[in-house]
Amino acid sequence: MKKHELIFDERYVGSVAVNHVSKFYGEDMEVKALDNLSLQLFTGQFVVILGASGSGKSTLLNVIGGMDTVSAGEINFAGVDITQLPDKVYAQYRREVVGFIFQFYNLMPNLTALENVELAELPGEMLAIDALKAVGLEDKADNFPSELSGGEQQRVAIARALVKNPKILLCDEPTGALDSKTGKKIIKLLMDMNKDKDKIIVVVTHNSAIAEVADRVLKISDGKIVSDVTQKFPKDIKDIEL
Amino acid sequence: MNKVLKKLRSRNIKGNIKQFLSVIFIVLLATMLFSGFMTNSHTLNSSIDNYFEKTNLADLWVHTDKVTEEDEKFLIDNDIEFNKRFYFEAVAEIKSLKITNAVKVYVCKAEISEPYSGICNPYIESGKASAGYGCLLDKNVAKNNDIRAGLESILFSCTFDVNGEPLTLDFEERLTGTMSLDECADSYATWSLVIEEEMFLSHIKEKLMKVDGVDYENFEIPYNQLLIKTDDVQKTKELLKDYYLNESTESELLYLFGRESIESVKLLTQEVRQSRKMIYVFPIIFLIVAVLIILTTIDQLIIQERKRIGILKCAGVPNKKILKHYSKYGSSLCFFGSVVGTILGVLLIPEIMFSRYGAIYSIPEEYVKLQIPVWWLVLMVVTMVVLGYVVSLSRCYSILNKNPIECLKYDQLGSSRKLKKKNKNKYFKKLPISLKMAIRNIQIKPLRTVMATIGITGCVALLVAGFGIGDTLSKSVSNDYGRLFKYDVSTTYNTENFKEKLAEDERISYVEDYSKVFVELEFGEKRQDIYLYSIQKDSKISKIKLQTGDVCISKSTAKSLGVGIGDEINIRVAEKEQKLKITKLVETTILNGLYVCDDYDFADEFVSRGVFIKCDSDASDVAEFVNNINGTNTAKTMKEERANIEERIMSTSAMTTTIKIFAVLLAVVVLLNLVFLIVKERNIELATLKVMGLDSWQVSISVILEVSFMAAIGIILGLFAGYPLMLWILAVNKIQIINYVSTISFLSFFASILIVLITIFAVLVVCYLRIRKINMAESLKRID
């Protein structure tokens, strides 16, 4: 992977500052997905964003992850306003800084589990097979996604995100397509990924039960943060019912 | 419900507009080519029939040394409709413009004026002519040389037999108009001039008045040609032969031939035949390739609709309605494309082709009637619609047979189920991931792979065949003019001191005699009118090396007659017959016929004496000098002879050029269609790759590899298929004036590959830009 000019200020690595971000849709910008929203995320946090459908939670995730542009405002990561990055550097930001986990896994159907993880490998970081081991799927490395269950596919997706050791892990409804038991396993896996407290993990969900295990819970409505609660004593995953 | 379904259909079309447009465009291209060439063929056929009918083309031409009263009486007694005229060849000069050229002069009665009543009437394009008045020049000659009828005069000489001695008179006739003469429809090389006989006779008499001892008052036009209309050509021909072979007949028969021997009639009828064959060669191949692509594309479109079909089924929409709804997709796309294609084809292609014909032939525009083969075109549109309908219906039916839940399941992984444990060997594992993705995509979409490969194969094959035909035409012309015969200028002459005059020019380095005569060749039951050439022993001009007694026949003539070396043939010229034994074969392309040595005992019969000239300076200057020698019949440079032949095969070149353009368009549409299909189908995958931080090039590479792989296979297959396709086209498209020497140069293969590669590159750039434009957030929303 060719290196581009993405230089972070080491003093701020790990913090994400969303400053007065707005996102409008429609020809006349009539739909406000994010409305002058500001927030700061810190390394080591396990953040859950709750909100109804259309509240803007996925849009927030998308703009933080560099998947979507903002209409106004800025998003700072380690001293760099990522909204101003040129396309190539933006791609580098997504590749080196951000990990994504989707509701429907979004694995490449024609690549095996190992190859899917290999896609995200970065030099000097973890090996794909080790990432698969970490999610307990080393024996399914040669299977295609169509040969895996939903939970296994999501674990491959986690391994794919884990392999590059991202600073920010963004999860959009990671348990949405899974049963309760598997869902819990996935949340556990995500929490385990942050044992060293070196990542920001953001989980977007409409399942409020997941919020009980989070360090911080944000509630979004009409593109605005309506509640921001830091939980000093989050529950253990074993104690919740999804 | 119907209203909702209609809305759904129109929104689906909007959402998939590029794919729908590409299907429409492929249908349009295929039907346009087919309908265009078919209309062209019908129009050409009817126009020529119309032309021949209106100008009352003769069935037989009789050339004699003179037409006597006895001859006329014989024809009247046998109830044979005829016209007589005086025909001679000369070198003409347009006085004010100082342009000289060979001219065929026809002196005939006042039938040159309307209403036509004679045989072989010229069609007056501009100016006028009537009884006792008229001198008409070929319209194309006038147009090409900017000769203004009514203002310019034409100068030429004519030799008459006066008191038993030849007397050459110079004439200056004012051009009164322009015309088209069906016998001289290919007026490219030789001009044709029609002069009203009463006027010409009075001019002759004026000149003879000044010659001592000539009874100018009783001088009559020395008619030497009879034009005959008959229902039974063969019978009349036999009757005339018997008459002229009879010793008591005073006049001597020089030539007797039917329409098939008239060069321009031959060319026109051949043009019709060729245009008809063309429909069944290129456009049919194109149509087949296009139909395959259309079918697979519609098939893919319906497969993409699988989920919507499931939703409709779940919503309780009856199967019959769903079938009806989706079958309209294919049929309406095919209907729209084929109707527009047919209209464009009918309007554009005959127009393009006729502008080509117009440059070669003098068919009056008034006789050109657009003849639309309505039923054929309707049949074609109906066939396309039925094909579209059946494909949509069958694919939709197979989806409807599934459980609604199966249809509704997100199918991102569906197709990859086919992969199972394939490609897990150690070598495959070492391949780059993008390549693996490309190979596996090809594996799981065999139909699409076949579709794209067929498209590219067809395109490359058509291009190779098109270029190959160009090479063949070029080689065929240079085979005779350049390889077999190598000279600078050639001419025929009719005066004794011609060669002495020729020797006066120092630029001429070498002169070699040749002669030719039109003979009837007989072998068993087969007969053919061909040229008998006499060339010098140890010729320095020709590569056909002949010794005394050698009889060489061109391979194509030998093939058509079924003769070979050692066979004895019978040749007949005028009233004489001779048996000849074939000793050699020669590969000729245009100068087909028999070749004998100049000391052959039959050589006395050669009426047309000619010379091949080699010169040290510019050939066109020498040709001009030769043309100015009295008694020369058109001196032409080899370049001009080649250009003449090339001009005659121009319509074939025009057709192959059209096909090449359409082939490239087909490749563009096929590849774009393929790219749109892939990008649409793999939108989520590509967006995910982007989300993972791969740049646009890395995201595009697997699609590029996939398309390139199919294109490479298509190119390879197309290169193999191109040559046989070319041979087949040439075999189907055989024409009389030229015997093709099939060849294809490396450069043609290279050019075909290059054109396709440029096309592929352009399409891949579009593909790259399209992938770059993928909006990650939108694509991953999954609102199906």
Concise overview:
The complex is a heterodimer of chains A (about 240) and B (about 775). Chain A has about 240 residues and is of the alpha/beta class. Chain A has helices at about 55-65, 85-95, 115-120, 130-135, 150-160, 180-190, 210, and strands spanning about 15-25, 30-40, 45-50, 70-75, 80, 100, 170, 200-205, 215-220, 225-230.
**Which residues of chain A form runs of ≥5 with pLDDT under 50?**
none
H and E string of chain A: EEEHEEHEHHHEHEHEE
Secondary structure: helix percent of chain B: 40-55%
Kindly provide the name of the CATH class of the largest domain in chain A.
Answer: Alpha Beta
Q: What is the helical fraction of chain A, as a range of percent? A: 25-40%
Largest sheet of chain A: 6 strands, mixed
Indicate the CATH topology of the largest domain in chain A: Rossmann fold
Number of strands of chain B: 21
Structural class, from secondary structure content of chain A? alpha/beta
Q: pLDDT below 50 for ≥5 consecutive residues: which ranges of chain B?
A: none
Give the overall form of chain B. Answer: elongated
Query: How many independent structural domains of chain A?
Result: 2
Look at the helices and sheets of chain B and give the structural class: alpha+beta
Count of strand segments of chain A: 10
CA-based gyration radius of chain A? 17 Å
Q: In one word, what is the shape of chain A?
A: globular
Distance between the termini of chain A: 40 Å
